Amino acid sequence: MKMRKDNMVLERDSLLELGIKFHGHLCPAMPWGLRVGLAAMAALGVERAKNKELYCNCEVGDAHAMMCFADGVQIATGCTFGKGNIARLGYSKNAIELIDVKSNRAVRVTCKPERVVKGFQGKFFELRKSGVEPQDVPEEIVRPLVDAVWSAPDDDILVVGEIRKVDFVRPKGTFEWARCERCGEVVFGPGLRIVDGKVVCIPCSGYRA
What we know:
Elements: E1 2-5, E2 8-11, H1 12-23, H2 29-44, E3 54-58, H3 69-77, E4 86-88, E5 95-100, E6 105-111, H4 113-120, H5 123-129, H6 139-151, H7 154-157, E7 158-160, E8 164-165, E9 177-179, E10 186-188, E11 192-195, E12 198-201, H8 202-205
Parallel strand pairs: 3-4
Antiparallel strand pairs: 1-2, 3-5, 5-6, 6-7, 6-8, 9-10, 11-12
């Protein structure tokens, strides 16, 4: 499979290499995210987002196994926190809903539960659970897991849902800004607060949000 980005054609294996470099270590969860993202785009018949053509609801949470999945999703789909076209839903699940903003079509794709559970029974998960950092797991243990995820047919490792219509309104960005009257730093509109008649940022306001 090839992915087109501007005038550049990104080969499938180059995508995996890019994902590993971006993510920082070799593990099976990041390639799961790549596969889920690629399958969702294929189901919708769309290309990787250059700007905000796609929106992704990613179901990962905080501080649980396989969160690395989310980095693969970002690399594959082009839905990134920097572009503001991805949301973390906090369900602590490895699944996404990908939305084609122009057509308001969406698809949910998740890792096949049986394959995930099988992975939990292996040496990699045992070492990680005991406190071994992912970059310290011997490559001879982790590489076969990565290769298995990367080479398996979609039907063996993924569950691709039905295409459905959604009522999606893309969040509108703001160019409004001000300097916090306490710390002096530049703050954009959503982060501005008024305290004692002064325009301040959230940290200087004493509020949590």
